[in-house]
Design a protein that fits this description.
The chain is of the alpha+beta class and about 375 residues long. It has three domains: about 130 residues, Beta Barrel (conserved putative lor/sdh protein from methanococcus maripaludis s2 fold); about 90 residues, Efflux pump adaptor protein, beta barrel domain (Elongation Factor Tu (Ef-tu), domain 3, Beta Barrel), CATH 2.40.30.170; about 140 residues, OB fold (Dihydrolipoamide Acetyltransferase, E2P), CATH 2.40.50. The protein is built from five helices and 24 strands. The strands form three sheets. The protein has a 15-stranded antiparallel beta sheet that branches. Strand 20 and strand 21 form a beta hairpin. Helix 1 packs across helix 5 and helix 3 runs antiparallel to helix 4. It is rod-shaped and about 135 Å long.
Length: about 375
């Protein structure tokens, strides 16, 4: 645009503002063009579209974060204190169920092992005593009560051994020489590790390993109070991330919390994603686009046709080949390049979409005001 054209347009807009201030702003008005003030050649270049009824589409972009499913996670917290002897996996490694995660030495486990060995010696003695008592009872040398006492003594020792063994199985597998191994109870990936060879572990400390099944993950989305009327469970979503700029992932909102997060002051919406190809990594940031189409039909026109002036919205309507009017409208909203109208237009009216600002200014300069 040349400087001369810029000056002309600025003069036209200035005269428009002066005219608007002189009209009664409390009344709705159509302002009609003087057909003699607009050249025939210019009128022939005007383009219009028909106002149509359509469902309003709305779009909202939210932020989310990938998280592992808390129902498919195991945190390994030592049940006893000790020293880590060896670790077998690093952060991000895949682990199969039954594989050892780490070995540790513990005086508590050593004490249990010593007690178990002592009880196993007592068990052998009690078995011999029971065998002797049974033989003597068969020869009627002792009473049945003495035989039952020998049986009870053996069973008590065996029960203590079973108890200690069960405790040791919970703590780890005995590898001998005071070393116990802790194995994975599920297959998955190491998503947290807080242990290394030689480090001290405590029974009341934090998890030393966290294993998660990442075959399905959650995308947790922040929903602010201003979005509550728009976001619903079951809505379809489009998901994108900077990690895969050319891909769009599709899913739906699985659930929406009814309680605001006390720290972030947002509701948390949950999206469950299949992740067998492991594209989604925990803590990855995602953009979640939510789309909705209202059931109410509204007048729609291209957004380029809308003129904003004096804090109001207007369009230029072509009533005939040489007659144009300015129509004040009330907007309901926008989506992409479409505007939805609550009032001011009816279906089928021809709305100017090319040179509408020049026509608008020319009509204003005509200063012909008529009541709607």
């Amino acid at each position: 645009m040349t400087n001369n054209k810029k000056i002309i347009i600025n003069i036209v807009l200035l005269s428009t503002v002066v005219f608007l201030s002189s009209c009664n702003s409390g009344r709705k008005t159509d302002i009609v063009a003087d057909k003699n003030s607009i050249s025939k050649t210019f009128l022939e270049s005007v383009k219009t579209v028909k106002a149509v009824l359509s469902n309003q589409e709305q779009e909202l972009v939210l932020t989310g974060k990938v998280e592992y499913d808390p129902d498919k996670v195991i945190n390994y917290v030592p049940l006893i204190s000790g020293i880590a002897d060896k670790t077998y996996f690093s952060l991000g490694d895949k682990v199969q169920k039954g594989q050892p995660l780490f070995d540790m030495r513990s005086t508590e486990l050593s004490a249990l092992l010593s007690e178990k060995i002592s009880l196993e010696v007592d068990e052998k003695v009690a078995e011999r005593e029971l065998k002797t008592a049974q033989s003597m009872f068969d020869d009627k040398m002792i009473s049945e009560r003495d035989l039952l006492e020998a049986q009870r003594n053996l069973r008590q020792i065996q029960a203590e051994i079973s108890k200690i063994q069960a405790n040791m199985n919970v703590f780890g597998t005995d590898k001998g020489n005071g070393v116990f191994s802790v194995s994975a109870q599920m297959s998955g990936y190491v998503v947290h590790k807080n242990i290394s060879s030689g480090s001290t572990v405590s029974a009341d400390g934090n998890p030393v390993f966290t294993i998660a099944d990442l075959s399905a993950v959650w995308i947790t989305v922040n929903v602010y109070a201003s979005n509550l009327l728009f976001v619903r469970e079951g809505m379809e979503v489009e998901i994108t991330t900077q990690s895969y700029p050319d891909e769009v992932f599709y899913s739906k909102i699985h659930s929406l919390s009814q309680v605001f997060d006390p720290e972030e002051k947002v509701l948390k919406a949950r999206i469950i994603m299949d992740n067998r190809d492991l594209k989604f990594k925990p803590e990855m940031t995602m953009l979640v686009k939510v789309k909705d189409k209202t059931s109410k039909l509204l007048i729609s026109i291209p957004s380029d046709a809308v003129i904003f002036d004096d804090n109001q919205h207007f369009v230029v309507v072509k009533e005939s080949s040489e007659n144009f009017v300015i129509r004040k409208i009330v907007l309901h909203g926008h989506h992409n390049q479409t505007s939805y109208i609550l009032s001011g237009l009816v279906e089928g009216e021809s709305v100017v979409i090319k040179n509408q600002l020049l026509i608008y200014s020319s009509i204003k300069e005509g200063k012909l005001c008529t009541n709607l």
